[in-house]
Automatic annotation (TrEMBL):
InterPro entries: GH, Glyco_hydro_5
Protein species of origin: Chitinophaga polysaccharea
Name under which the protein is recorded: Cellulase (Glycosyl hydrolase family 5)
Alphabetized Pfam families for the sequence: Cellulase
Keywords of this entry: Glycosidase, Hydrolase, Signal
Family the UniProt entry places it in: Belongs to the glycosyl hydrolase 5 (cellulase A) family.
Amino acid sequence: MNRYFTRIILLLSVYSLATHAQQPWGKDKAQRWYAAQPWLCGANFIPSTAVNQLEMWQPATFDPQTIDRELGYAALVGMNVMRVYLHHEAWVQDPAGFKQRIGQYLTIADKHQVKTMFVFFDDCWRDEYHGGPQEPPVPGVHNSRWLKDPGGRIDREPALMDTLHRYVTDILTALKDDTRVLAWDLYNEPGHFGHGDKSWPLLKNVVAWARAIALSQPVTIGIWNKDFKDFNAFQLENSDVISFHNYRDSTVMQEAIDSLRKYDRPLFCTEYMKRVNKSTFAIITPMLKKNNIAAINWGLVAGKTQTNFPQGNKGGEEEPVLWYHDIFHRDGSPFDNAETTLLLQLTQEK
C-alpha cells in the first residue's frame, strides 16, 4: 500500500512539473536581455584559499575577506561577471546558512559591480566528497581536490535525487528575482569523466526543476564536446542563452562560434584560456569581444586549486614558467602585465 501511494505521489509530482513548467525564453526575449548587458567579461572564480567548492562554501572556511580582495583584482581590469560553482553538500549541512553565505558573496560581488553566474552540478574531477575539513591540495597537481556534484553517488543512492530537487528549488526560489545573479548554469560538462549516459536523469531533472520556477534570469547548459551530439541537442534546446567551452586556438574557436551562431541566441564562452594551447587573452579575447560573445576564462587568482599548473600533471615539479590558467598571484600582481593591460583596454572600449 505504501509503495502504491509513493508511486502516485511521484506521478503527481512529475505531472505538476510538466503542467506548470516555464517555457525556454524565445530568441527575441533572449536577445533583448543580452542587449541590455554591457559586454560581459570575467572568470571562473574560487578564492585562492579554497581547494574546492565545499571549502569555499562551508561555514568554517568561507572567506569573505579573500573574496573581497580578489574580486577587487578582477574589477581593476574591468571584469564584470564571475562563474561560481555551488555544491549541494554545503546546502545539506545547513540550508539557511548556505543561503546566507551566498547572499554575503553576492553583496561583496555587487560592491565590485560584478554579477554572478552560478553553476549547480558538475561531472568533473573527484567522485567522492564529504562535508567538513577538506584535504589539502596535492603539491603541484592541477585541481587535485575539485569535486563532482553529485558524481557517482546519484547512481548508488537514488533517493539523493529528491534531495537535489529540494536543493535546486530552494536556491532558485530564494534568488529568482535577485538582480545580482546574471544567469544559472544548470550542469557543467554532463557526461564527462566517464559518466556518459548516466548523466541523463539528473540533466533532464534539473532542467524541469528550473523551469518549474519563474526565473527572471536565463538558464544555460554549456556545450563542451562536439561529439556528444544527443547531449548537445538537449542542452541547446533547453538553454535560454547558449554557453560553450573552448580551450583551443583561434581556428577552432572560430569554428565553434560559426556553428553556434545559427541558433540566433546570445553566446557565452564560459571556459577558455589555456596558454599552452594558444588559447590566450591576446589571441582569443579580442575575437570574443568582436563577436559580442561573453568571455569567461578559467581562473582568477592562482591558489589552492593550482590550475596554473598543467592538467594531468603528476605533481612535485616547480611552478611552470608559462601558467596553464589563472591571471593573478595572491598578492594581486599579474602573471603577465600585458594580459591585464589588454583586459582593461577591452573592457573599457565601447
